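Minutes, structural biology subgroup

Action item carried over from last meeting: produce the structure token record for F-box domain-containing protein (Caenorhabditis latens). EB confirmed the sequence was re-checked against the source entry. Recorded below for completeness.
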Amino acid sequence: MTNPFPLLDLPTAAILHVVKSMDYGEFLNLSFLSKRAKKSIELMNLKSEELTVYIGDFVHMNMSIGTKRMEWKFYYCLKGNIIDGEDLLEESFENEEMDLENENELEEEEDEEIDYIEEDQDIKDIDEELEEFQDEQEVYELEAEEFALPDSVELLISDGVSSRAVWYMESLTMKDWIQHFMTIFHFSEIQHLDFTRNSSIFSIEEIKDSMIAINKLSVSSDTGFDVDYLLSNFHSKYLHLGLGVFETLKKPENVMIRNYDMLRIYLNRDHPSTITLDDLLFFNSKTIKVCEANWTAKSFNRFIKHWIKGSNPRMEMLNLLDFSEKEFIDTEILKGVRFMEIPADQTRWFRNQDGQLVAFEGGKDFYRQDGAKATIYNFGSYENFRCIAMCVWHPHCVVDPR
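Output recorded by EB:
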């Protein structure tokens, strides 16, 4: 039996030295004990490179911190299997080598019941429990139209070797979790929010209240939400509409006119294209990617002529992908347009909306009435789809080859 170690009574530098020797599960647990303990973790200056939140049958959060990857899965089914909170907290620290308690600071936090348990059961046992949750999902859906976001958490930490633990924070909401992570891992936005299958079982108002700034928003066709309502409540720099989602919009013009940095749309390949030339002229995004556009070379030619006259002034990149066998013919695409062909062995670098450099070889240059230059790249048929790209060389998109 080891003697208690008054960690939080040490100077800040000493606390930080000890905390850095802990694994992620240990110092995350420590961060919930008190304000001073949390501050000690903050001083480690860990930075999350990415926070992705998936909302579907359950809530799933992924974070990458250096070589570590943490997956947080929130379930309802685990709650009923957790031991009483006070017994759990006492048991979890019973065999610790260090006494993490600071009585004064814990009194300030006494309203926060923190329950934590390291699970010794096999991964197989956990997987079986989660499978039971999937089987019971239909019952839950019948009992209530909406759920509050869950507060039972499975944590998977991987860095070559994976470890699992189950947490139960009854007093913490999803909003509390995200706010806690923000301060510990020093991020200010959710990199990717993805609404997937059956996400409508959760309250959209609670999800909205829990979120911070969103960089990329993805929506699949089987969320169960009214997509127009969903998009009116969640705003992002990037929008990805999954297969067939665009066709369900009651007011697609609300998406077309928004100033997205990137708009990606996957149309339903089993139906005629729902994006016409007139629609495309409404788009106000910097980068526009449309899969299954099902456009003809004649339609694209008409779009180019409208662009020459001044349409789509914000557009920097347009990508059209199609799975039909017929290739785009350059002479038809640029019929009636003055252009200059660039040698195929000449590489030019384009800076996209993320600041990343994209290499383009060859292509055909043409100009708008205001002098802006654009280039068409016809990739023909490639891996069962045809692709054509148009980039506009705004000053900030041009990379000096020197």
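Discussion: The first strand starts at residue 50 and ends at 55.
Next step: EB to file the record with the rest of the batch.
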